[in-house]
Amino acid sequence: MSAGARERRGAAAAGSRLSVRLSRLLNMVPYFQANPGISAAEAAAELGVTTKQLMSDLNQLWMCGLPGYGPGDLIDLSFSEESIEVTFSAGIDRPLRLTSPEATALLVALRSIADLPGMVDPSAAHSAIAKIESAISGRTFEGPSVPAPVQAPSVATVRSALAADHALRLVYYSASRDVVSERVVDPIRIVLVDSNSYLQAWCRQAEGVRLFRLDRIEEATELDEPARPPAEAALDEATALDLFVDDPAVPLARLLIRADYAWVLDQYPMHRVTQHADGGIEATMRFATLDWMARLLLGFGSGVTVLGPPELVTAVRERSGTALTAYAALADALGRDAEFPAAGFEEVGPA
């Protein structure tokens, strides 16, 4: 990158930081007027900045105000780390109004997360949506016209345990294993991954960080004991957000995917290994149980060929043989020939 390009990029980044800070400064005055005497620590937490940044902003506000920039023109504050109070607002008594595009973007975001279990308090989100819609239309806000959706009891329990920093006992349906299990976990946070909301928690049974999809938690019980996830588990966000951690202890399927079935790679947690001249793709996929994986692969018919491990090839062949026998029995019962997807079954494993 040339020196000029670096300078332009640096200037753009600096401009973006300044615009964000300006917006924050302009909204601080009405915020502190609405919360007189609030401590610096409390204000910093609510405004999403560090205490050091907040004190820097307050010192900057002292130099903001009306033209003339003399006594009686500049914003005046009385502040310390224990208490902050605005003594002269210089006319900045109300927060900035949202522009139409900003309000629309905020509404879209609120509606998106409000429909996801556990991400926000549905009543608060519903109320915020109604207020923004009233502001856009110019109507006086009279409260939401439609009742807020009710949280599932298990989701409400998870949110309560997170707020109280308590451990949880979960009854959870695992789609990959097709089983329901009970386990005790130490909740860390609620996260959004691939348009689904998950509880990120330390699973005491697995002794590792796991993601539990909130709509698959069948029961949740808040325990009267503190959550105690290892410190490194709570800090390692990147690894913990991987839905399919490559665990060597989990069986690995080797598959040959036909070129016109390449979409399978986008729908399932597979890793490409190599591509053949005819467009076919060799890939691998971890699976929890043999039965579940065999059922999944049979659904692809001839589009996916199982290369290994041997026990998976055997399971798929046995299931396909059972299906073909059932089709043949049905044809005999009907007394006529029937058309069966035999090719699809016969090609699920290597010759």
Determine the fraction of residues in helical runs and give it as a percent range: 40-55%
Name the structural class.
alpha+beta
The end-to-end span amounts to 54 Å
Mean pLDDT: 76
Strand content of the residues, in percent? 15-25%
H and E order: HHHEEHHHEEEEEHHEHEEHEHH
Weakly predicted, low-confidence segments: 1-16, 340-351
Strand order in the largest sheet: 6-5-4-3-7
Rg over CA atoms, rounded to whole Å, is: 29 Å
Number of helical segments with 4 or more residues: 12
Q: What topology emerges from the helices and strands here?
A:
Blueprint: H1 3-34, H2 40-47, H3 51-61, E1 76-79, E2 84-88, H4 100-114, H5 122-137, H6 153-164, E3 166-174, E4 179-193, E5 196-203, E6 208-213, E7 217-226, H7 231-235, H8 237-240, E8 252-257, H9 264-267, E9 270-275, E10 281-286, H10 290-298, E11 304-308, H11 310-334, H12 342-346
Helix pairs in contact: 2-3, 4-5, 10-11
Structural description of this entry:
With 351 residues, the chain is of the alpha+beta class. The chain folds into four domains: 3-88, Arc Repressor Mutant, subunit A; 98-151; 153-240, SH3 type barrels; 252-346, no CATH class. Helices cover 42% and strands 23% of the residues. It is built from twelve helices and eleven strands. Helix 2 crosses helix 3 (51-61), helix 4 runs antiparallel to helix 5 and helix 10 crosses helix 11. The two termini are 54 Å apart. The model is unreliable at 1-16 and 340-351 (pLDDT under 50).
